[in-house]
Design goal:
- This protein is mainly alpha-helical and about 160 residues long.
- The chain has one domain.
- The protein is built from 9 helices and no strands.
- The chain is globular and about 40 Å long.
- About 30% of the residues are buried.
Length: about 160
Amino acid sequence: MIQSDELESHIDRLADQALVFEEEVDHWTGWQPALASYILSDDFSLLTELERETLLFGATVLLSLARIQETSIEVITDDEIGEWDEANWTAIEEAPGRKLSDKMDVWFEGYPETELLAFIEDLCIEEEEEDITPAGSEMMVVALKTVADALFLQNSSTQA
């Protein structure tokens, strides 16, 4: 289980050092090509430039953390990504609440990596950030939750 101080340290390392960030992107795109294709796909072309950068940063944090901790050694397939993505969209669309943060509550109960969910929520749902749209927030949350599930919940691919 990822601890908050460990996650914060990792985020700071990637945010403060552009070269380290670029190296991590190179590492994870080679290690998990299907996840790279998913995150860099045209499916996210509706996101603003800031939203795409935020999505890439969030994915890099999750993927490099998984790589460093060796929580996910196996290569994730397109089919696995599709299953997680579909399950996450279904869960968020059926969740009660009007605000995205309220809808995310369904994921926190029983999720083994709540620090990762909190990171995703904090990264993607900026109440005061005008450059992140509601639709963009939802797309980023689902995409990053899909990445987290694929990397940290590989043994239970039906959990949303």
